[in-house]
Amino acid sequence: MDKICDKDICTGCGLCASICPKNSIKMVTIDKLGHLYPQIDQEKCVDCGLCKKKCPSLNTPIQTAPITAYAAIAKDNEEYHSSTSGGAASVFSRYIIENGGVVYGCAVVEDADVIDIKHIRVDSLADLYRLKGSKYVQSRITDIIPQLKEDIKKEKKVLFIGTPCQCAAINNIYGKTPENLCLVDLICHGVPSFDLLKRHVKNVLPNKQVSKLSFREGNELKLSIVTTDNTVYCKSTVADRFKEFYYDTFIDGCTFRESCYTCPYAKPNRCSDITIGDFWGLQKDADEYLPNHTIGTSVLLPVSEKGKCLIQATSQRFNLVERTVNEAVKGNHQLQHPTNKGRRTKMFRYLAKSLRLETAYKISIWDRTVRNSLRKLTKK
Question: Is the pTM here over 0.90, yes or no?
Answer without folding.
Answer: yes
